[in-house]
Design a protein that fits this description.
The complex is a heterodimer. Chain A is mainly alpha-helical. Helices cover about 80% and strands about 0% of the residues of chain A. Chain A starts with a helix and ends with a helix. By secondary structure, chain B is mostly helical. Chain B has three domains: about 40 residues; about 100 residues, no CATH class; about 220 residues, MetI-like fold. In chain B, a hairpin with a 5-residue loop joins strand 1 and strand 2. The longest helix of chain B is centred in the first third of the chain and has 51 residues. The chains are: A mainly alpha, B mainly alpha. At the A-B interface, helix 1, helix 3, helix 4, helix 5 and helix 6 of A face helix 1, helix 10, helix 11, helix 12 and helix 14 of B.
Chain lengths: ~270, ~400
């Protein structure tokens, strides 16, 4: 008998086992997020299965709550403002750094990407110490500035990635035809790197929209954001209202993610 | 020089000028971001590090006393001038809050200092006298503890505006009265234990992430790009979902009447609900859930670029498929394994929210101590020193990570 034929079933079994493990891992990633959704539509005030009856009462409670509505409003003030700052500054730097090599470029990049890496508690304590002295603690401005700083590395990296496939001859052609640098940027470069810029902006938005630790240090009672409010809610008493907020956030961030995936597909096409 | 040579030379210098101009333009475009980060990120971290060695309270409140104690051996009786100096320094403190700040600071050095300073401050001013012996007697009259050495030692030790004490304390060391460094008593050492716990939780999470992510990334890399992208969505949904949402979800799942316990009981595997929440188990499960995508994505991007031919060649040369996988395929993924593991570990040691919400008191990591000292004890020196330790560990690992990512283009 050929010795190889005896080994084939083992290989098959091994492959099936690996596949089963992988599916289990995917379930582990996805199920916890799915599980909380039906509980938000439960009529019971306990977050347990089986759900006795369906109801929208927790959503009504959520929309009637001044606290939650203020938190939502704050999140939608801080995150877009931080996104705007991060996107403009990050895109400028990415465009500038894309075409040149100079000694120390790697060190500079490490510094610019550091907000992604430095422990968030360190950022929270540091900005509190510094901003309190400037009167920027307990203010929207302080929170927006730090959230923007945390978002810039994402913009820088996504725009840089897009620029790698960018044909610089287009810029030269535009300049040789008489366009000023700013006009070239607006009419040639920007349209081509737009998917990368928007991806970066989405990352920056998500970073601010999900940030809780800096907010714990820097925000006053008037600047409580959605994650900050959830932190308090989970810590004190987790109710189905939290499940309702969670469900709405899952829908919202999943939409953001699909927008990003769509852009990524376009980016591939655009840089070709 | 011929005309052609001059033309080439002109062109060379024009090209050099162009390159210089492009570099200048690049830096000009980067400058706003750098200035912004300087203000919102770098200077604040500098403020934190400065605060970790800052020791202004005693030097500011007792300048005369510190001058009088200079040269004192910190063993014998303090010089007579010191008694007059402390009376003068304390009298110069106009507001009760100034005296309170000094008393609080000294009390963190030695217990009992607060009442000693405040009692003395309230008893001032003393009847005017120039006789050193008389000042000493008056001071002892207010509080006899001024004749004990510890308060003078505490003042002398903190005479400088900068102190290494917070940083030393953050790794369970302290300065003795004479100024040498020693370990604190075992029963009072806490921070080394918390540091070890931080590293051990991050390490456990990293290993678990690797064990779960490696087969998944490999499986995805064997698929067509289309199918792999569809399944990657499943990895990305949790990646994008708010951390707070996931914390709430894990509490719902892991609580004693939660789905995990219900399912295990229904399957007849347990009689009593398992304690999965507010302990190490819950923290590790939730952290693996959050950090797993950070392991899957770099592994997948490295594995995608590995050609199948080498393993096929090994098998066709008679290697067992498993041996070929371990000896030919796995070594080609080491860069991805190292990068993913470092990334997960770096992010893991900075965790705050997950242990705070899902852990018990014995599961809190270094970030929690930082927040605790800042918000609860209002001891900013200690908070910043612990933050400095966490930052140093992170930046060291990050430097290694950057070097690794530069060597492996797929990870950039």
């Amino acid at each position: 008998m050929n010795p190889n034929t005896a080994e084939v079933p083992w290989e098959r079994i091994g492959f099936v086992a690996v596949r089963a493990l992988c599916i289990a891992v995917l379930m582990f990633l996805l199920l916890p997020i799915v599980v909380i959704v039906p509980l938000s539509f439960s009529s019971s005030s306990f977050l347990v299965y089986p759900v006795p009856d369906w109801s929208l009462r927790w959503y009504r409670e959520l929309f009637d709550s001044a606290e939650w509505m203020r938190a939502a409003k704050n999140s939608f003030i801080v995150a877009p403002a931080a996104t705007l700052i991060a996107t403009v500054l990050g895109t400028m730097a990415a465009v500038g750094l894309a075409q040149v090599r100079f000694p120390g470029k790697n060190v500079l990049l490490s510094v610019l990407i550091a907000p992604m890496i430095v422990p968030i508690v360190v950022v929270g304590v540091g900005t509190y110490l510094f901003f309190a002295r400037l009167g920027l603690s307990d203010s929207y401005a302080g929170l927006i500035l730090v959230h923007a700083a945390l978002g810039t590395p994402f913009v820088l990296t996504t725009v840089s990635a897009t620029l790698q496939g960018f044909d610089t001859n287009l810029v030269r052609a535009s300049a040789s035809l008489g366009a000023a640098p700013l006009e070239t940027f607006r009419r040639v470069t920007l349209p081509l790197i737009a998917p990368g810029v928007i991806s970066g902006a989405l990352f920056a938005f998500a970073t601010s929209f999900d940030e809780v630790v800096v907010t714990l240090f820097l925000a006053g009672p008037a600047q409580v954001t959605l994650p900050r409010q959830m932190f308090t809610g989970i810590r004190e008493n987790i109710t189905p209202v939290i499940a309702a907020v969670a469900t709405l956030l899952i829908v919202f961030t999943t939409a953001l993610m699909f927008a990003l995936e769509w852009l990524r597909g376009r980016r591939g096409a655009g840089s070709r | 020089m011929t005309a052609a040579d001059a033309g080439i030379e002109n062109m060379r210098s024009a090209l050099r000028r162009d390159a210089r101009r492009r570099t200048a333009a690049a830096l000009l475009l980067t400058l706003p971001l750098l200035a912004f980060l300087l203000f919102t990120f770098i200077v604040p971290i500098g403020a934190l590090l400065l605060r970790a060695v800052d020791n202004p309270e005693i030097a500011r409140a007792l300048p005369g006393t510190i001058a009088a104690l200079r040269g004192w051996d910190r063993e014998s009786r303090p010089p007579a001038a010191a008694y007059a100096a402390i009376v003068a320094d304390l009298q110069a403190l106009r507001e009760q809050s100034d005296a309170g700040t000094l008393a609080r600071r000294l009390n963190t050095e030695v217990g009992g200092a607060r009442s000693l300073v405040m009692n003395t401050w309230r008893a001032l001013p003393l009847p005017a006298t120039t006789d050193a012996a008389q000042v000493h007697a008056q001071l002892i009259g207010i509080d006899p503890r001024w004749d004990e050495p510890w308060i003078w030692q505490a003042i002398a030790k903190n005479g400088s505006r900068l102190t290494p004490d917070y940083l030393l304390a953050a790794v369970d060391l302290r300065r003795t009265v004479e100024g040498s460094v020693e370990s604190v008593d075992a029963d009072r050492s806490a921070f080394r234990r918390i540091l070890m716990r931080t590293f051990s939780i991050a390490a456990i999470v990293t290993v678990l992430c690797l064990l779960l992510a490696y087969p998944l990334a490999w499986w995805l890399s064997t698929m067509t790009a289309r199918r792999a992208n569809a399944l990657l969505i499943v990895v990305l949904v949790p990646f994008w979902t708010s951390i707070l949402v996931r914390m709430a979800a894990w509490i719902v799942l892991l609580q004693s009447g939660g789905i995990v316990n219900q399912s295990l009981a229904a399957a007849g595997l347990i009689d009593r609900p398992l304690a999965l929440l507010f302990n190490r188990t819950g923290v590790v499960i939730a952290m693996v859930h959050i950090l797993l995508p950070f392991m899957v994505l770099p592994l997948y991007s490295v594995m995608k670029g590995i050609p199948r031919d080498y393993v096929r060649a090994a098998v066709s040369l008679g290697s067992h498929p498993l041996a070929a996988f371990v000896r030919v395929y796995v070594p080609q993924t080491y860069a991805g394994v190292a990068a993913g593991s470092l990334l997960v570990f770096i992010l893991g040691i900075g965790y705050y929210v997950t242990p705070a919400l899902l852990g018990g008191p014995e599961d809190q990591m270094l970030s929690y101590s930082v927040a605790q000292y800042a918000n609860v004890h209002l001891d900013w020196g200690m908070a910043c020193a612990l933050g400095g330790v966490l930052l140093t560990a992170t930046l060291l690992l990050y430097a290694i990570y950057r070097r690794l990512a530069r060597m492996e283009p797929a990870l950039a």
